[in-house]
Amino acid sequence: MADSETNTASGDDAPKRPEPSGNVDPASMTQISAKETLDVRSAKKTSIPEGLWLRCPGCDKMLFRKAMEANLHVCPECGHHFRISATERIRQLCDVKSFEPRRWKLEGADPLNFIDLKPYPDRLAKEQEKTGQPEAIQAGRAFIKGRPVALCCLDLTFMMGSMGSVVGEAITRSIEFATDRELPLIIVSCSGGARMQEGALSLMQMAKTSAALARFDDAGGLFISLLTDPTTGGVTASFAMLGDVILAEPGALIGFAGPRVIKQTIRQDLPEGFQRAEQLLDVGMVDRVVPRSELRNEIARIIDYAGK
Ligand SMILES: [Zn+2]
User: Fold this and answer.
1) Distance from the alpha carbon of residue 218 to the mean position of ligand 1, in angstroms
2) For residue 61, how far is its CA from the centre of ligand 1 (angstroms)?
3) 28 C-alpha to center of ligand 1: Å?
4) In what order do the strands lie in the sheet with 100-101?
5) Domain spans in the chain, listed from the N-terminal domain onward
6) What is the Cα–Cα distance from 145 to 7, expressed in whole angstroms?
7) Angle, vertex CA 119, rays to CA 114 and CA 125, nearest 5
8) Quick one: which of 32, 36, 70 has its CA closest to 52?
9) Which of 47, 110, 119, 242 has the fewest CB within 10 Å, making it most exposed?
10) How far is ligand 1, taken at its centre, from the CA of residue 294, in Å?
11) Can you tell me whether residue 163 is helix, strand or coil?
């Protein structure tokens, strides 16, 4: 049964849940605004709901949003992998309704009384209201093609998936949970890096998660790190790159500093495909680039191969 094609990711048997509002990432989902639509279409078409179509950043074609979503949020034309929320990732990756979230009463500190456009506590409250999630991570246990796993998914829709003390603590506790239960650990990374609003406390999460992973490794655990677009900063510089097996989605931006910062620093043009998953595979930083449709199979295969 385990190897049979029960892939919820193929979509037919899985409940179709609409994305929570505010889930659209402006960088990847070039949404056609109502105004633009009006400009190019006749008046009778103005009844088309906003966001029904979107332009693919990969091939520049207009896509019917529902068709793209039914295709695991991958462009049916060119295979561009759109960014997805943690909720959608869990829906795609796990066996139907197998995900049991683990929740902790954790709250991020504001030791710097940080204010950018607004105070940090206000920003947190706004993000919680927008996403319906307490923080930029969902963690729990689940089954993937019948294999039990401990799963963490960073959530790009919440403050760019940045790692503050709550995210770091949730990851650490998940690693410890996987160690105690002898479960394979899967962390799906998509993050802008450490959360600047929490200052050094964010940076300390890098050491804490890495130390927990070292203990997990000593105990013989299997850690599969899945890098998705984008995986950057302190997340790349800690647990994301410590996988026993490191998988990446096609085209994912993976790096420490972003390409624009590097370009400005070294004052040189960067090669095409710089910091993309395929280039990292070439230089040996990533073990395999796996299309979204193959992730469940690939993860199940690795777990079986490792005998976990
Ligand atoms: Zn496309």
Assistant:
1) 43
2) 6
3) 11
4) 100-101, 137-144, 147-154, 185-191, 223-231, 245-248, 288-289
5) 83-305
6) 7
7) 120
8) 32
9) 47
10) 18
11) strand
Report the separation in Å between the CA atom of 231 and the middle of ligand 1, taken as the mean of its atom positions. 21
The closest of 153, 227, 236, 157 to 193, measured between CA atoms, is 236
pTM over 0.90: no
Architecture of the structural domain at 83-305: Alpha-Beta Complex (3.90)
What does the pLDDT look like over 122-131, one tens digit per residue? 999 999 999 9
Lookup: tokens for 27? 């960088």
**Number of Cβ within a 10 Å radius of residue 177:** 17
Structure tokens at 98: 């197998």
* Residue 49 confidence (pLDDT): 59
Distance (angstroms) between ligand 1 centre and the Cα of 270 equals 24
Contact 91, 296 (CB under 8 A): no
Q: What is the pLDDT of residues 36-84, one digit of tens each?
A: 333 344 444 445 556 899 999 999 999 999 999 999 999 999 999 999 9
Residues 223-248 have pLDDT tens digits of 999 999 999 999 999 999 999 999 99
How is residue 261 written in tokens? 């910062």
Compute, in angstroms, the gap from residue 224 CA to the centroid of ligand 1: 28
